[in-house]
Amino acid sequence: xxxxxxxxxxxxxxxxxxxxxxxxxxxxxxxxxxxxxxxxxxxxxxxxxxxxxxxxxxxxxxxxxxxxxxxxxxxxxxxxxxxxxxxxxxxxxxxxxxxxxxxxxxxxxxxxxxxxxxxxxxxxxxxxxxxxxxxxxxxxxxxxxxxxxxxxxxxxxxxxxxxxxxxxxxxxxxxxxxxxxxxxxxxxxxxxxxxxxxxxxxxxxxxxxxxxxxxxxxxxxxxxxxxxxxxxxxxxxxxxxxxxxxxxxxxxxxxxxxxxxxxxxxxxxxxxxxxxxxxxxxxxxxxxxxxxx
Length: 293
Ligand SMILES: Nc1ncnc2c1ncn2[C@@H]1O[C@H](COP(=O)(O)OP(=O)(O)OP(=O)(O)O)[C@@H](O)[C@H]1O
Hints:
Blueprint: E1 6-17, E2 20-31, E3 35-39, H1 46-53, E4 61-66, H2 75-79, E5 81-84, H3 96-104, H4 113-119, H5 135-146, E6 153-157, H6 165-180, E7 184-188, H7 192-198, E8 201-206, E9 209-214, H8 216-222, E10 227-232, H9 236-239, E11 245-247, E12 250-255, H10 258-267, E13 274-276, H11 280-288
Parallel strand pairs: 3-7, 3-8, 5-6, 6-7
Antiparallel strand pairs: 1-2, 1-4, 8-9, 10-12, 10-13, 11-12
This protein binds adenosine-5'-triphosphate.
């Protein structure tokens, strides 16, 4: 193992509450320059896991090693970590620039402010009080703050929530730019496409455990899913296919040979079906029995 190959290695983390094993033996590795995503349905234990990695919650047991060297969040580690929490908190009366300056003052290392302002397209809003920012502008500011200390590890919890599709894609480019610069990023997201586009590897959690991990392609290939046929759920009862999952408005079935199923659908006069390649969302659905939202 070469020095600094791993930004973070967490082994067998556990956090139990009286009524629930929130995290029950989770191991996660984050390599230098890698983006990983943690996905899971509500209550799976994602936030608890990430908060333990961020040093905000103490594990009951398990081990976290940062930069192959530090076993807890020392001042040196704190300097090298950036965090964007799900809930943003800003001082409403401060301007965007004052907010940036205040956050930067917490760290010895400082990124180039101008570059950050430019990267997150905050230039026009520097003099605006944060209370007057739109939801999307607040979100961009929150993510920008996570990069102010030029961190090596960045935690981004739902970073693109509230952004329109164009702003979301722009933020994806920004995240990928930082990855290319060698930063390691841990992402939690409800958007499967986002996880697929950005992540080198994905960890899927359910009931406090990691139930699958790998590259998006590995997860799709190893899921055994071949083709997916999707159709409105009102036809589900009429057709009754083996292995069918019904969620939201649609029924899904994964098949090796789609022809017999399509024949069945046509015979039942169902014409508005879709045949497609499986996605990370289908893997998630198969593993957890639930859609992520
Ligand atoms: N402080 C706490 N006391 C008791 N139970 C807790 C506490 N924090 C979390 N839990 C429970 O632990 C489980 C995991 O919660 P966690 O917030 O980590 O899940 P999550 O995957 O982040 O969910 P979501 O997607 O809804 O944010 C849940 O059942 C939750 O109710």
